[in-house]
Specification:
276 residues, alpha/beta, Elongation Factor Tu (Ef-tu), domain 3, Rossmann fold, 2 domains, seven-stranded antiparallel β-sheet, five-stranded parallel β-sheet, 12 strands
Amino acid sequence: MYRFFELEVARVRRVSPSVQRVVFAAARPGGLDTFDSGGYDQRFKLFFARPGQDRARVPVEQGENWYAAWRAMDPEQRAYMRTYTVRRQRHELGELDVDFAMHTTPGPAAAWALGTRPGDRLTTLGPAVADNAGIDFRPPPDTDWILLAGDETALPALSGILERLGSGHVVRAWIEIGHSEDVQALPTRADAEITWLVRGSGPGLRQSLGAARLPAGTPYAWLAGEAGQVRELRRHLVGPGRDGRGFERRRVAFTGYWRRGATEEDLIAELTAATA
């Protein structure tokens, strides 16, 4: 179950060369009380106004039928829609942290994050129940150890997963970043080994993961980031023989957060065409 929320920017901070953090509060008192992030890799939608518009045009009055109404709007007028992950929600303060990855050529979301100031407002579609379809991290009960891998766009989700895991979990994580200054402290109670890989200065995710000695036992893998890279990692994990790891397919969760050379509008159009 999802519903619309009106957010107001409370603070903005540059966390690292590749990450801009925006702290949101509700646009009205108590307005985030029913935003119920389930933690881990919780996804939700943000809507951004197009150039020349003073607000994002989103058919919030349509309720559950908002998506069909949004699709029916003039593509040059309807709001840009982007999918993000909750970095952290502080219920007691009514605040929501969202980390924006700063690409070389900023898209609508990154450009907004770079220019936003306290007091700016934004519309979001977020979860109203903790157990919702926007959470992909769901290791089976018989999991002995967890593999995590992703790029800087997956950092908020990786952070949320690690924060939620308890002391009985064994985790091996690989994170590819654009700059050495992008390394962050990722608090966790789990037995976690985190390998940071700086893009272009050594082996990438696939090479590093392929060379790694993995723990024994039944694994569960969670992969996220650039779609092509995620597919390559998944093929390695589920593949047989010398070049594969032989993981069961059902034990590998994978999500393409973005795709090189494509906007989210492109991906939505492709999905709509495939569904039709």
